[in-house]
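Quick review question:
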């Protein structure tokens, strides 16, 4: 069992990406792959999982301020120190053929590295979406790496008006893809997984579940017995569709099963 040695790192930079979304960069030479994550400890507050949005020697994670821990993180400055454990979890993979990457909301932070890494050996298309223009981020990074990028917003303030799932469906109707990669709100992921299954496309889905430990001991991130931290966070879509929880239920921090 790999618990990951806690190491303290100095924040090299902190950047506001969009409304309430921030990226923290720090030096770390450990090898990481698209879709993997670290556990970030904020001294005196809490430890939270963060998907890596930068993979090189100057790593980074991107987050939205949704609670006390992320709010404190957003107020930090260059030179402040945080704790990091990991790299944890499995990673995205791409089969032969064209790749379609979909990101919704903060899920964009989890898939941006897949667009950049897989575009080296594959033709990659991307669909990203948010509620409004001021919630979009990493658009330029994705457009620079992808062959085609479709941007959607619920209110039409940027790109196409509509849902990212609508863009994904249209793109899958237009072209044959070997792999579909996605991260975002679970209702969105459920619809994308169903589409991929119906079209016979291999789909790799990164799920966002509450994690306490990051190495499989607390059971807080269980999806019908599959642990997001060690069995995931990237799953084959058919595995997720075979569960009764995916797209329907999640566990609260206290372990109570509630509707999504």
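Suggested answer, residue by residue:
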């Amino acid at each position: 069992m790999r618990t990951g040695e806690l190491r303290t790192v100095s924040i090299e930079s902190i950047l506001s990406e969009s409304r309430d979304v921030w990226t923290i960069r720090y030096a770390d030479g450990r090898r990481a792959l698209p879709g993997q994550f670290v556990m970030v400890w904020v001294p005196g507050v809490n430890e939270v999982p963060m998907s890596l949005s930068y993979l090189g020697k100057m790593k980074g994670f991107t987050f939205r301020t949704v609670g006390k821990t992320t709010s404190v993180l957003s107020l930090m400055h260059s030179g402040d120190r945080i704790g990091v454990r990991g790299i944890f979890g499995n990673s995205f993979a791409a089969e032969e053929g064209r790749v379609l990457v979909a990101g919704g909301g903060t899920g964009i932070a989890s898939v941006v590295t897949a667009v950049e890494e897989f575009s080296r050996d594959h033709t990659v298309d991307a669909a990203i979406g948010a509620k409004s223009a001021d919630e979009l981020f990493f658009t330029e990074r994705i457009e620079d790496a992808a062959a085609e990028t479709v941007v959607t917003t619920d209110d039409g303030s940027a790109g196409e008006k509509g849902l990212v799932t609508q863009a994904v469906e249209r793109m899958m109707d237009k072209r044959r893809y070997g792999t579909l990669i996605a991260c975002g709100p679970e209702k969105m992921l459920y619809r994308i997984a169903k589409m991929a299954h119906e079209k016979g496309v291999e789909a790799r889905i990164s799920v966002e579940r509450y994690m306490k430990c990051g190495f499989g001991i607390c059971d807080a991130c269980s999806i019908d017995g599959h642990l997001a931290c060690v069995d995931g966070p990237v799953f084959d879509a058919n595995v997720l569709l075979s569960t009764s929880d995916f797209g329907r239920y999640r566990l609260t921090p206290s372990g109570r099963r509630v509707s999504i």
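Why it works: The chain is about 20% helix and 35% strand. Residues 186-199 form the longest helix (14 residues).
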